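Running this now, will post back.
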Amino acid sequence: MSRVVIVCGAGNNGGDGFVAARYLFNFGFRPSVFFIGALSKLKADALVNYRAAKNLKIPVKPVRREDAAFKKALRSADVIVDAIFGVGLNRSLEAPYDGIIGAINASNAYVVAVDVPSGLDGTGGGIYGICVVADLTVTFSFPKKGFFKKHAARYTGRVAVVDIGIPVRTRL
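Update: finished.
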């Protein structure tokens, strides 16, 4: 069975990571879930999904930097799910995010980004200092404009668009 590591941030993208952990758990996987940040900073949906994962007894480990336990998990992973930042990111990434993303990029695992690779500007295609290099980006409802600009394809890998029920009128 594949070893999956999911790295979650405190925003909605992190909430999507907790949802992925629940689905994988329900399919018989035992994902290793790491959370960056303070639990008190979890946004509403992310908090709901964090609690749902905890209710299933899915261990969620805090990671404050690219420490030994985190690096060991990445080295043994077959798949890493990047659920750190989504389309709302609008600032340069500094510690601890730069080191954590660097450790993800240094792994030999297959990397799946949730919605956008963390560090990529989903609108303009620029990079906020450092960016996850994904093999696959699973994006919601429509491809982001930034995926087609600059060198974004280096970071997105293959892009899969999934429908999550957002009405067409609100997509424009």
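The chain has a mean pLDDT of 92. More later if anyone needs it.
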